[in-house]
Amino acid sequence: MAASAPPRGRKLVSTSFYYDAAGYPVFPCGSNSKVFSPDDLNRMQHIFDDCLQECTFPIDSQAAESLGVAIIRLYSQGQRDGTFIKAALLPSFKRRA
Questions:
Q1: Which residue in 5, 14, 51, 92 is deepest, having the highest Cβ count within 10 Å?
Q2: How many domains does the chain have?
Q3: 47 lies in some domain
Q4: Residue 15 lies in a domain
């Protein structure tokens, strides 16, 4: 059963997750929380910068924000291989350029 988005004007409130604008959990918290280390953040930034350069998006564009969200989502799901993340995301994001 898929979760539905909250009614317009209402915030989605949960004690166990933070949600991005699309309603996906981004940063798990609670007893099983995974906090990103400085090394994780540096790796994600490097992946983001590489992808952004290949896609030629402006840093302040909606596409760049979506790219960042996708990288964080994959990383929070346990994917740490930068080559895999780029291979998974770049084809669809290059079509947006």
A1: 51
A2: 1
A3: yes
A4: no
Residue 20 lies in a domain: no
| Token pair belonging to 52 | 């952004």
Q: Does residue 28 sit within a domain?
A: no
Q: Which of 55, 48, 54, 47 is nearest to 81 (CA)?
A: 47
| Structural domain range at position 75 | 35-94
* Res 31: pLDDT: 44
Q: H helices within 30-97, ranges in order?
A: 38-55, 62-76, 82-94
Max CA-CA distance within the chain?
A: 40
Task: Return the SS3 of 25.
Answer: strand
Which two three-digit tokens encode residue 81?
């291989």
The 10s digit of each residue's pLDDT in 28-86 is 554 445 688 899 999 999 999 999 999 999 999 999 999 999 999 999 999 999 999 99
